[in-house]
Specification:
By secondary structure, the protein is of the alpha/beta class. The mean pLDDT is about 95. The chain is built from twelve helices and 16 strands. Strands 4-5-6-7-8-9-10-11 form an eight-stranded parallel β-sheet. A four-stranded antiparallel β-sheet has the order 3-2-1-12. A two-stranded antiparallel ribbon has the order 13-16. It is globular, with a radius of gyration of 19 Å. Bound molecules: magnesium ion.
Length: about 350
Amino acid sequence: MKAAIHEHTLKLRHTFTIARGSRDRNRNLFLRLEHGGIVGWGEASPNQRYGETPATCRAALERLCAALPESPRAYDPLLRSLAASLDGQYAAMAALDMAVFDWLGKSLGAPLYRIWGLDPAKVPPTSLTISIDTPERVRARVLEAPDFEILKIKLGGEHDHDMIRAIREVSDQILRVDANEAWQNREQALREIEWLARKNVELVEQPMPADRWQDMAWLKARSPLPLIADEAFSMPADLLHIRDAFHGVNIKLMKCGGLLRARDAVMLARILGLKVMLGCMIESSLAIAAAAQLAPMVDYADLDGNLLIEGDPFQGHSVRAGRLHPREAPGLGVRPGPAWQG
Ligand code: MG
């Protein structure tokens, strides 16, 4: 297998502010694998919250690529053994996993969702994320997104209630709230969630810091809304704690190291009776199209990373009326833009 790594900065359409801070761009890494005349593509979106930078991600990708066998066809033992050798660099692993599945699907001549026996019509509608901003700007963003039946609102800033009131003045779209670990004590978190329930919010993601398992179990017993773990989840084994403290889990390819382990996590979450959201980081259409292959298995889709950026370097699935439509094309169904073709 031949491997090449490209780095590319994705520029956000709007400054993206969550409880932890703001960003205008994200430097992602793209992996091109070639074997037998077939090319597979993968993407990594390194995230500092999980101990990743573009440099650590590139170093991990280089290590992973150096350990590749001649052919990626026996993907299951290959990806599991490489993941076991990682030092927490799961976005790098996700890029390799995606490239292997893109290659595999192309070599078999079928989309990955077909190989896995999934129905693309079952992909849930995606939410569109609106990050923390002034009530006026939030209201303007909502008015720009009438096609989306679900909006995901980032909270944990100075003006949470004003933001929600501003949205409700102009919209009755379904709202999901993500506090990104912002609320520091459980009584405050419960008060916020009860207020949000009166504003017809559907669910709340990661209300408290990820390590506050006992407080979250207390909150789960009292919350009028379903609580979804995001930062508290990386590995499938985390789900054994999550079932006591949350109603569901947000699974992302970048957190668990790609499609193979994300599929393990979806199946284990189901066995444990948890609701499942499939989410994303700041990603191009490549990684979002990869997640879309798995999305028929989940309850909630939050796969809008490519909609938040300018100059998407890949083409993949289409989004119509807030719904993702994976292409009926082999592998992940993605095509690089003109700069990376050939
Ligand atoms: Mg989240």
